[in-house]
Amino acid sequence: MTPKRHTILLSRIDHDGDCHRWTGYIDGHGYGIFYAGQLNVPRVVKVHRYMYEHTHGVRLDPWVAVRHRCGLRKCVNPDHLYINYKHRINPNAYSNRQRGPRPHVWKWGPDSTLKDMNLSFLRMRAQCKYRKEPFDLTFDDYRSVWGTQWSRRGRTNGSLNITRKEKTGAWTRTNVHLVERIEHLDSYNREDKRN
């Protein structure tokens, strides 16, 4: 971000009180946003993420969530912001908030493989929640399990799928592995319809 845009960004922060409130634009989820790009290349920045990165001098991966200790989404005070690589700290805290990677981060991003992997991870997590299976797998764990084999996933003979080693255990990094599909899924569906 240019120094001029950084100055404009700082001018939209209300420093009264312990929480530094963002007074600019707010997205649909209640987080402060700022247009940091140029006229022909607009780039939307989440203000709390930018303040954390700028203060600590780091560049975070898109799936790493910056969280608020105070619980106020408009707060951009760097002392109230922290990161946690596990997708769940306390399951009862902020139960109305989205957890895990944010798919909208990759909307215009260059890496479609990460976007596909993220969407697959979110689908798998939602299915496990529906089936009431314990799920303690993070996106980084999911990515490390697939490694360079992501292109071999699928539903055809010879493709790879992720599954649990112990069927009754939780979905954790130590309890998942990749298995090669032997039969095509359609053959099972045809046999079920005949019986």
How would you describe what is shown here?
There is one protein chain. Residues 88-96 have low confidence and may be disordered. This protein folds into two domains: 1-84, Alpha-Beta Complex (Homing Intron 3 (I-Ppo) Encoded Endonuclease, Chain A), CATH 3.90.75; 91-195, no CATH class. It is α+β, with helices and mostly antiparallel strands. The chain has a two-stranded antiparallel sheet with strand order 1-2. 29% of the residues lie in helices and 13% in strands. It is elongated. The protein has five helices and eight strands.
Write the layout of secondary structure elements.
Blueprint lengths: L2 H9 L1 E2 L6 E2 L10 E3 L8 E3 H10 L9 E3 L12 E3 L28 H19 L8 H8 L13 E5 L11 E5 L4 H10 L1
Antiparallel strand pairs: 1-2, 3-4, 5-6, 7-8
- What is the first-to-last residue Cα distance? 64 Å
| Helix and strand composition category | alpha+beta
Report the principal-axis shape: elongated
Query: Which ranges are low-confidence, i.e. pLDDT below 50, for 5 or more consecutive residues?
Result: 88-96
Number of helices: 5
Tell me roughly what share of residues is in helical segments: 25-40%
Briefly summarize what is shown.
By secondary structure, the chain is α+β, with helices and mostly antiparallel strands.
Summary tags:
2 domains; 195 residues; alpha+beta; 5 helices; Homing Intron 3 (I-Ppo) Encoded Endonuclease, Chain A; two-stranded antiparallel sheet; 13% strand
